[in-house]
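Please, structure for the following, as tokens.
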Amino acid sequence: MLLKECLSEADFDEALNYCRRFPAFIGGWNNFLFQKTNRFPEANCRNFWMEAENGNRIYFCGRTYTFPKVTPNLSIYCDERLNIDRKTFYSGLDEIRSKFSEFYNFGDGVVVTYEPIVSEYCAWYNNRFPDHPKLGEYPCITYFMSDAQKVQLAKDYQNGIPLPEGYIFDIVDIENDSEIITKTWRHAGPGDLEHTKAKLKHFPSSLVREKSTKQPIAFEMIDMSGLCNHLFTLPEHRQKGIGSAVEKDLCLKLIRENMTPYKTVELFNEDVIASSDRSKYWTRWELNGKPVHIIYKDVPNRSFLIFCSKLTSKFDKIELWNIFDEISKLIPHIFKLDGVAAIAYGFISEAYKEWYFNRFPLMDLKDFPCCYYFMTKKQQQMLIEDFKDGIKLPDDYFFDDADIEKDAEVILNTWRHAAPGDLETTKTKIRGLPSSLVREKATNKAIAFELVDSSGFMNHLFTFPEHRNKGIGAAVEIDLCIKLIK
């Protein structure tokens, strides 16, 4: 056995002492501290380590939760300059797999790590699970506060953090505020409402309210690894410095608890990266002058069933149930997922719901009813004729091809139905299917777009709020329709 498990108080003290090697082990240090002090009792944790070259260690911190449907997490920590022996590391991962069998069910688990682990982990995963989809990837730049920066922040705001007129810092109301905090988190999934409540209950957080409404308009918290998590300001209250104030307030609370603030910023979030690089309070984690990317790896956990029939068709319910049973046997893996989406209408929709609740009584199934629009042949001809000379945009905007690497994350980040694994799906849509995108000339940033999916369905028409009411969204839709007609 290569792995040694942390079980005793002495094991945790040893791990805490080893993990003082910041920033590489900062999440591990918090993880062990919170476990030793039972700071987050809703987490079920197991921790292992293996010895690498020259006495270096690789730590594996696995975490599940008592909340139903919250994604398990495996964080892997090592020195970023470590040379990894592939054969030995694979053996260690095989042991991890045997100890976290539920983590490797199709559609489960997020792995958080960085190079040199990432490449080796992906190679091992592809070798051990050749039939599973490719792991989704969410790379982030990591920022942390040095001891000097922590002292500077505390000194600069020893008399408090100012807010614009009309806003106040307030203690979070766990029951009343948790829902909006969860709903505004782009990575939230089933079960995360209770997860949010627990984080707010056990850990430091920061929240600002609007005085006139008493409503929360900006907030941030931390997670089980001590990571500053989900800094968010409602759009109508942005550009006032409130988000920055919330971040500073949370960091001061962490510093008072003898913790080192750190955060990860996704690569598409260029404005936050630029402001963090400029800040005198943040240090970017680098190796040889280049940022070290923390990578969130997960297995796509959503599949689709599409049922098509004439609305006038008549079916016997027993016959349909038999068909659904046969489908569940032919493609059983997708019925193990919370993320299976069935698209249907009329009698088939009702029959499927009845069958699903009968066969999977412990699972949840939500309705998202939609109106359905299409273009007749005559309307298609009319559209082509009306815009034969092109589609006009306001000055300062232009149509452009979507850049798969640059634009996919921005597009995904604005989609309210986005789920783990959808980044690769978005890239595939852009690469293989028609799309439409408009950029702002001054910044060259994508500000409006629309895609189609593998059923030809027009998907995610979006314009950034500050560019709305200019006809840009309508222009994007028309442009995409013309591409589809052609």
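The mean pLDDT is 91. Residues 401 and 437 are 6 Å apart (CA to CA).
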